[in-house]
Amino acid sequence: MNGLLLIADHASNHVPGDIDLDIDPALLDQHMAIDIGVAPLGALLCEALGMEGIYGGVSRLVIDLNREEDAPGLIPTESDGFAIPGNRLLDAKGRRARIERFWRPYHDGIAASVAAARPRLIVSLHSFTPRLATRPEEQRPWQVGVLYNQDDRAARPGIAALRAAGIVTGDNEPYSGKVLNATMNAHAEANGIPYLGLEVRQDLIGDEAGVAHWAQRLAPVIVEVASRLP
């Protein structure tokens, strides 16, 4: 489907060999390091809809690509109660080097793609953990959340379409796009481009069957939202 662009900031758990985070390697397969299921789900959605896709190529524990350059959590020193000792050792020079190596090329690439193609709709794809280790009592019942900041042109019909399809849908849940929306703020809102920010619960897309199922459910929603835009 022409005019669509998918962006998945946290699609990878890759940590370059010259970066030592000093963490248990098992953490790299958990939600702190990667948006579980997003890479294969994004690939199926792009294939089904003829979308171009841009995927973050480094773990969010190396640098969080969905943060502003000056955000305190850009290079996390802890995540969901787990310390990231290697990042605590970074001085200002090391922080700047990591920004220049990963964050800036990623966002420069998005900016160039958006300027060249001027998409009608950007789909921002993330996934969220059903339960945070630091807040085990918190209920996260939504199957999909729709995140947005000031521009809700795609979010409103997206929420309506998801709910009409029987999908338990969060409106700026499990967290608010008015607080955390850096990539869409910079590349969609700043350019006046509508965007649909989708957060899928990770236990639903943790295996191949789940990914295929949710690609089939989400593709028609994206098509409907795009068709409603002027």
TrEMBL record:
It comes from the Bacteria. SUPFAM superfamilies: Zn-dependent exopeptidases. Keywords: Hydrolase. GO terms for molecular function: hydrolase activity. This is N-formylglutamate amidohydrolase. It comes from Rhizorhabdus dicambivorans.
